[in-house]
Amino acid sequence: MKIRALVMGLVVGSFSMAAFAQAPIIIKFSHVVANDTPKGHAADFFKKKAEELTKGKVKIEVYANSTLYKDKEEMEALQIGAVQMLAPSLAKFGPLGVKEFEVFDLPYMFDDYNELHRVTQGPAGKMLLDKLEPKGIRGLAYWDNGFKSFSSNKPMKSPADMKGLKMRIQSSKVLESQMRALGSLPQVLAFSEVYQALQTGVVDGTENPISNLYTQKMHEVQKHLTLTEHGYLGYAVITNKKFWDGLPADIRKQLEEAMVEATKFANDVAKKENDAGLEAVKKSGKTTIYTPTAAERLEFKKATVKVHSEMESRIGKELIQSIYKETGFDPAKL
Ligand code: LMR
Predict the structure, then answer these.
(1) What is the pLDDT of residue 139?
(2) In a domain, 334, yes or no
(3) Number of domains the chain is built from
(4) What 3-state class would DSSP assign to 186?
(5) Contacts of range 306-311, beta carbons closer than 8 Å, 24 or more positions apart
(6) 273 occurs within a structural domain
(7) Which residue among 63, 68, 145, 237 is best mutated to probe the pocket of ligand 1, counting the most ligand atoms within 8 A of its Cβ?
(8) Is residue 14 part of a domain?
């Protein structure tokens, strides 16, 4: 009897050990935008690649559209290990204490994606990701979205038109300063709250890359969109450092490989998706789209350039100067 029980125990035990050995590692990847955006598509691409390369040993669960956590909560959730991966906008690292990322928010700092990639893929990009380590976070990659434009219910052809507008911003002091430089009243709101705030008039307007504006249907509650393209919005893909370091080395390597491919994918689709979003907004006929003239663009630049020097003490003069070197931006030339 005893021997039978022992044998049974061993059999059951080895079954459950086998089940345990096969249980996939779950990675919860939470984000706040729609699936049908550059970040949404890149997260889905990463899921597919990672599951393929690890042959199912890792399962990625993507939670889009703030279904799991909103902006601020998702950072906390990552730090305590309730989720394993995020890709927050670079404008959202200030509250975490890594305010240097706000260098990407400086108005008109970047003219195109190439200038940006020289920074994100160079020493400054690495230095910024390294700053996350003491917070228990590992930075894995930068993913593009695009260049932001202003929307509101009023035509906006010059900085004077922005005066007194209540404008939603992400949680960045640079963006706050940018809005104040234009005479607008900045208000920080979580991304998930923006549509309703625009609809109910809690705020008058906001700034977005068009892919975000369109997929959140903000154009349905914004009569005017001015293609200022005054600032960049992109992401740092981050993970919980303890979780990442605790992965078996071969799995970590496969995930890193999947991330390299997902990053390439993200940066390839970002512009196309923003262009498609603009076409879709045009087609909807719900928003009047205005393209500023070169002179009007210069006016916006001149009105906001002081933000660069105002934010030196927050971001670091050296970091700002090193980025000027890469982008050729020269405030003295305006
Ligand atoms: C925003 O809050 O406007 C963006 O950061 C949303 C996003 O993740 O693109």
Answers:
(1) 98
(2) no
(3) 1
(4) strand
(5) 306/181, 307/106, 307/107, 307/174, 307/177, 307/178, 307/181, 308/106, 308/107, 308/109, 310/177, 311/102, 311/106, 311/173, 311/174, 311/177
(6) yes
(7) 145
(8) no
Q: Which residues pair with 246 in a beta bridge?
A: none
- What pLDDT is stored for residue 22 in this prediction? 75
- Which helix H or strand E contains 86, and what residues bound it? strand 85-86
Beta bridge partners of 30: 63, 86
Kindly give the parts of the chain with pLDDT less than 50.
1, 6-7, 9-15
Cα–Cα nearest to 195, from 213, 171, 218: 218
Whose Cα sits closest to atom 3 in ligand 1?
191
User: Is any atom of ligand 1 closer than 6 Å to the C-beta of 191?
Assistant: yes
| Helix or strand run (H / E) with residue 290 | strand 288-290
Is ligand 1 within 6 A of the CB of residue 170? yes
Tell how far the Cα of 23 is from the centroid of ligand 1, in angstroms: 34
Q: Is residue 3 in a domain?
A: no
Residue 1's pLDDT is what?
44
CATH number for the domain spanning 201: value is 3.40.190.170
Question: What's the whole-model pTM score?
Answer: 0.93
Please enumerate in sequence order all residues whose Cβ is within 8 A of that of 29, keeping only pairs 6 or more positions apart, or say none: 43, 46, 47, 60, 61, 62, 63, 83, 84, 85, 86, 87
For every residue of 30-66, DSSP letters joined together read E-SS-SSSHHHHHHHHHHHHHHHHTTTSEEEEEE-TT
Cβ 32 under 6 angstroms from ligand 1: yes
Sign of CA dihedral 267, 272, 273, 278: positive
Q: Exposure pattern of 224-245 as b/e (b: 16+ CB <10 Å)? A: bbbebbbbbbbbbbbbbbebbe
pLDDT given at position 21: 60
Instruction: Classify the C-alpha dihedral 329-147-237-132 as positive or negative.
Output: positive
Instruction: Quote the domain boundaries for residue 242.
Output: 20-328
Q: What is the pLDDT of residue 13?
A: 47
